[in-house]
Amino acid sequence: MKRALSVSFLGLALLASVPAGASGKQNTPAVPTPIIATNAQGVVHTTSGQVAGYIENDIYIYKGIPYAKAERFMPPTAPDAWEGIRSSRAYGPTCPQAKRMGWYSDESAFSFNWDDGFPDEDCLRVNVWTPGVDDGKKRPVMVWLHGGGYAAGSGQELPSYDGTNMAKEHDVVVVTLNHRLNVLGFLDLSSFGAKYAKSGNVGLMDLVAALQWVHDNIGAFGGDPANVTIFGQSGGGGKVSTLLATPSANGLFHKAIVQSGSMLRTMDARYSRRIGEETVRLLGLDAASIDSLARVPYNELLAAGEKAVANVRQQAEKEGDVSCFIFGWAPTVDGNVLPAQPFDPVAPAQSKDIPVMIGTTLHEFTASTYVPAFRTIGQEQAVGMLRQKYGDRTDEFVSLFGKVYPGYQPKDLMDVDFTFRPGAVEQASLKASQGGAPVYMYMFAWESPVMDGILRSTHCMEIPFVFDNALRHASMTGGGADAQALAKKMSTAWANFARTGNPNAEGLPEWPAFTPDGGATMWFDNTCTVKNHHDRELLDFVRQFPTRGF
């Protein structure tokens, strides 16, 4: 997936900062305490050596710790051990990736406030936030998998990803990480012999290696290796979906949260191999010279890979058999690392007993955010545009939409999401039908007030709330009292789920488990409610006009 299109699965945004209307007292930020950065305090022993972080506002923070190393296209291996104490106070390298085009939009750059760090292929790093180290406590561990599809992003790219508030307010250990992406993580060269048999999935194998590092080391950071939750948004949700079906990850995590990223199907090997073969051809190489691919400059390698994806996708669409959510840089069903499609035709048996939370935002890729004319679009014009998709059944769609969203604005016809929501409901239904651990479902419908409200509840909007970072990422949320109040509720629900497998929390109505018949969905807004299959008939209609992924 092209970087120009991605922040998570895509690159969105816009904004400015306007406080939300107060529904109570606005929280006063805690007075920061001096940073303590010394080798005399907070040094932790890991399997590779000692690391020193820093202490800020009573939270121990460690950044850029190597969890593995890898040669290009090869599976990860244990990192090199080191002598003495390794300073781990700054984020490590991020995986090389295409230029982020969002920086050229002032509104996007302001709202998302990305930190893209510095790129290097030696990028396998973890970051840890914890309330205490070597204290004998066993706190829930929450491992965040970043968005950007499998092509872009990092464990530090948004202010929302900072784990300080989550660790401090909810007594959990937060981990974020970097792994190999795009052509470095998912170029399938298996056609060129056994040496490259796993090359199409080494980025996925990095995630497993990171979870293994957590299993082996997190106890020293005050976490419980027997209570690990993986959670991620957009591409990160896709990674969670895939790890639920990855045999080598079995036993390394115990709960899972999929945010706007239910990925039921991923790449088929016949297409991923074609992409690998086409990349090699475009670079003027062949089987005899394949090993020289490891020395091709990254930008040249990426350009060839992106062109190969486009060429093969065009072929696949002619064959009429493109059913994966992401075509190109994504894990491939190779019969080994990933034996089968994650959630097709059934939920993976290996994760039957893992509680799962699944949800989306109401608007996701909000058309009116990017097309100013859509913000004031009239009913007739909006319906006319819908005819391009629904044809002579457009009136039927509008009628069903009105039943689900009475009093809607015409722009809602363009903005309400039908890309992620159908897959999320299907994933939840498949999981619930197993009769194992429960699945909980949510919808995030809170609309940001920034930039006169043009962001609405767009893709990525729930992340500051999940991490209790509504104030830290005020350029996205506005940082007002309503945002902070909802962030407290949501972050508590996420932490409770990580602790017990049940997200019910003070300040929320009772949140029942999702069932295919009941369809219970927690609706997050200034007033939180539970809705039951509120849009089932509408989704049944929309599924007849499928929207492919990316």
TrEMBL record:
Cross-referenced Pfam families: COesterase (PF00135)
Keyword set, alphabetical order: Hydrolase, Signal
Keyword Hydrolase appears in the UniProt entry: yes
Residues making up the signal peptide according to the UniProt record: 1-22
InterPro entries: AB_hydrolase_fold (IPR029058), CarbesteraseB (IPR002018), Carboxylesterase_B_AS (IPR019826), Type-B_Carboxylest/Lipase (IPR050309)
Domain of life the protein comes from: Bacteria
GO molecular function: hydrolase activity
EC code(s) of this entry: 3.1.1.-
Enzyme class: hydrolase
Annotated Carboxylesterase type B domain residues: 42-370, 417-539
Keyword hit for Nucleotide-binding: no
Similarity comment: Belongs to the type-B carboxylesterase/lipase family.
PANTHER family hit by this protein: CARBOXYLESTERASE
The protein's name: Carboxylic ester hydrolase
Organism field: Candidatus Bacteroides pullicola
